[in-house]
Amino acid sequence: MADDFALPADPASAWAAAPATPLVSEQMRALVTQIFEPTATATHPRSEDRHSGLAQQAQIDAPPPASALCSAAHAAFAAALGPEHVRTDASTRAAHANGMSYLDLLRHRLPAARALPDAVLEPADEGQIAALLAVAAEHAVAVVPFGGGTSVVGGVTPAKGELRAVVALDLARLDRLVELDEVSRTATLQAGLTGPAADALLAAHGFTLGHVPQSFERATIGGYAATRSAGQLSTGWGRFDALVERLRAVTPAGTLVLGRAPGTAAGPDLKQLLLGSEGAFGVITEVTVRVRPLPQARRHEGWRVESFAAGAALLRRLAQDGPRPDLARLSDETETAMGFATGGEQGGEGCLLLVGWEGGEADVNGRALATAALLQAAGAHPLGEPAAASWRSGRFRAPRMRDELIDLGVAVETLETAASWRDLERVHAAVGEALRDALGEQMRPVVACHVSHLYAAGASLYFSVIARRDPADPVGQWQRAKHAATDAMAAAGATITHHHAVGADHAPWLAAEVGEEGVALLRAVKAQLDPAGIMNPGKLLA
Ligand SMILES: Cc1cc2nc3c(=O)[nH]c(=O)nc-3n(C[C@H](O)[C@H](O)[C@H](O)COP(=O)(O)OP(=O)(O)OC[C@H]3O[C@@H](n4cnc5c(N)ncnc54)[C@H](O)[C@@H]3O)c2cc1C
């Protein structure tokens, strides 16, 4: 069953191509206009770039600032990589200027607010990466590792801090399956492979990684590792960091090879220092991950439960006592009513619960039957496979829909956290309230939420926010809302991020998460691995 991890057949859902017809239906457009009565419209016409139909036009209208890379650094990079792999043309620089948060999408529409890297470097191997890091340190050039560029926390923003210039390090040429160990069921994948490319290489041998974040089509193996990504099957198959057995990273201080055996007592697990390091310590070049045989069977089902609290209690039971689902997703009352999970196809009362299993035939059937019995006994109402099918078919469309909604004049963004089962509902309420208060009633904010990753001790909460956009200060409007939401998470004892990572946007809250001593420890690691401070300044550590 390899097809699930291939690009969706619907070309409109692929970020690489403009949709032939708008993804936001006429009906939804009318609803958005009716609810939000937007006064702002697109600040600038859009055209395609490598991200998602963003405003390259902005770059065409306003000539980009000249590259600040000095000729000596340019020549040294060219000697290390070959001149054709040191790109300073405007469109390549523009395509590496931002990630994909709402503010990034807005900045694509506001030419003056957009910073470009001074060059884009395209290394092919570890030797070239080591060489270019040495050149960067010598010439005081900041280096931003760039995978798929899908960061939603400012992780790939080309900031140079105190340095003279900044380059994006595009890892797309590191695109090989280095080794598949079928006996141990591990695969060594290079960092620049995208999700679909990695899964296609594995599927040829009957295996899958099965890591499917919503950004699957573009995000890369290195990006997954550097951000501790979580995919849609993470409840059963494990988040990306939990799948990693070994990794290699080139840092300015040298190359690290971490992880020798599936279990060890040889001191603290240093792999964990690179997982989630967000390019601030070095460049992850290769990751050895656990893989699975392609699933023989897949079953995804929808259920309706009476409330978010009732659904959360059921998910807790499944997570703690089993049978554990591979996919679990519970929409709150607002998300259910708006039909967010199913692209507007399945609205309704109560809360939508999706559960799914993938693997061997007997295992899938056994867990599905046992779960159905448990849910039915608890009063849940079966909706069958169609509810889950409409979620599956629409799950990669959201990125492009955001562009279209922004054009309609609304603010639209997502944010996420995780908390213990005991605190989950309190955090759900506190973050929702913080967002609604910060945006203000006059902006008619709609805050919807779902649970999508289960642990024995708790679960993640993923919030979607839509509001009327403030035409006078759209950036400040969202920054205030995001600030309030992150403060609420920290105050409620939840994490500041479950899987989007820290980047630049969450860095001011890192001390609230790990304490001042924890931040000092990370700074010491950075000083050891990156003494000149060239690696992704301002990300992870403010
Ligand atoms: C629409 C949308 C949906 C998303 N859904 C999910 C989801 O379901 N689950 C999830 O976990 N995330 C999700 N994200 C967030 C994002 O896709 C993840 O953080 C992803 O792991 C980033 O991968 P990337 O290759 O795009 O990394 P990039 O965006 O290129 O980089 C992210 C960070 O990692 C660093 N980095 C990248 N590659 C390397 C490397 N080889 N070595 C060192 N540092 C590196 C960068 O410098 C940056 O700090 C979503 C994003 C969008 C836009």
TrEMBL record:
User: Lineage from the top down?
Assistant: Bacteria, Bacillati, Actinomycetota, Thermoleophilia, Solirubrobacterales
Which residues does the UniProt record annotate as the domain FAD-binding PCMH-type? Answer: 113-294
Q: Annotated region Disordered: where?
A: 40-61
Q: Which SUPFAM superfamilies match?
A: FAD-binding/transporter-associated domain-like, FAD-linked oxidases, C-terminal domain
Q: What is this protein called?
A: FAD-binding oxidoreductase
Q: Which UniProt keywords apply?
A: FAD, Flavoprotein, Oxidoreductase
Query: Into which family does the record put it?
Result: Belongs to the FAD-binding oxidoreductase/transferase type 4 family.
Q: Which InterPro entries match?
A: Alkyl-DHAP_Synthase (IPR025650), FAD-bd_oxidored_4_C (IPR004113), FAD-bd_PCMH (IPR016166), FAD-bd_PCMH-like_sf (IPR036318), FAD-bd_PCMH_sub1 (IPR016167), FAD-bd_PCMH_sub2 (IPR016169), FAD-linked_Oxase-like_C (IPR016164), Oxid_FAD_bind_N (IPR006094)
| Native source organism of the sequence | Conexibacter stalactiti
Pfam families associated with the record: FAD-oxidase_C, FAD_binding_4
The record's annotation in PROSITE patterns points to:
FAD_PCMH (PS51387)
- Origin superkingdom: Bacteria
